[in-house]
Design goal:
Radius of gyration: 15 Å
Structural class: alpha/beta
Order of helices and strands: HEHEHHEHEHEEE
CATH architecture: 3-Layer(aba) Sandwich
Oligomer: single chain
Strand order of the largest sheet: 3-2-1-4-5-7-6
Amino acid sequence: MKILGGEFNGRNFYMPADIRPSQNVLRQSVFNIVGQDLSELTFLDVFAGSGAIGFEAISRGAKRVTFIERDDKCLKVIETNCELLGLTEDFKAREKYEICNIDAFVAIKNFAKSNRKFDIIFLDPPYEVGLAKKALKTLEAYDILAPKSLVLIEHNRRENLTEVCERLKLIKERKYGRSYLAVFELK
């Protein structure tokens, strides 16, 4: 797979065959929605998998990207991709990201306890019914959203997210093959 824009545009990163990747068109759409220049914005990549979305955010200048991934195999893939992109080589680049090997729901609760806020949150939970809804409800229950933040969630067609939230308002939803991308903002 390749980075689609920004500083690392065209650079390859590792994508194992058994990880469901976010399609290129969906990844490009995410950054058409949130913007191409993410300088001064914090980005949270939840259920990060290979880290593709988070690496796109780093490439587009995000102030800091936090990857949340519980699976040890995926964690190693993210670390390998950091090396491939040269992020582990200099101190300044290492400050732009952190990798958290923890359950996504525990991570969100911990961020709220330490009063951490994020400008953009991208969630790509495994396509098991109920995980996307649970993730949105957890975000609503724990205050980690910065003012004017956006929440983007990739989900399958079986999960209807339109009536899940009280504090988040669905502003856009699009279909990309078997995947949907829903975009929320604070009400």
